[in-house]
Amino acid sequence: MVKRTSILALEIVGTIFIVFLGSALHFTYAWSGSNPLVGAFSAVNESVWEHLKLAFWPALFWMLIAMFPLRGVVRNFFSAKAVGAYIMVILIPAVFYSYTAFTGKSIFAVDITTFIVAVIIGQSVSYKLLEHGESSKSAQGVAIAAMVLLAIVFIVFTFYPPQLPIFRDPNTAQYGI
Questions:
Q1: Domain boundaries, the chain
Q2: Of 36, 105, 157, 171, whose CB neighbour count within 10 A is largest?
Q3: What contacts 138, CB < 8 A, 6 or more positions away?
């Protein structure tokens, strides 16, 4: 069992894990020879939506890893991790569309920094909630459902994306796979 003082260390490791795995997921679809199964979990194009997968899937995977050492240590694990993951997924497009409204274009260094900062903020919020939060079993159930729902949406929209700007690859003008 992990002591409460180890939660911070675990969340720091999680932040590094999410950043590195998310960075790798940017390339795994191409590396796989455009395998649709890999595409469900990787960025399949340069749309903003596909880049959200780079934060979500590693955060979900880290949640599944971290739940074992934190079992019995915290009572709000799933709600804390879901809030952190949703913050990441909300911050990335919020920052992207805010700065591109002023610049009129995407800036690669800003996009990379946004991804890293979104992960850090999401993990920081998760840590604070794990340290100080309480939640009911029903709140935990809602958090699990929210993560499952977002996972389903990411997979479905990879293959059947709505024809909206967030799903459009700016380089090819294509949507999804």
A1: 6-167
A2: 157
A3: none
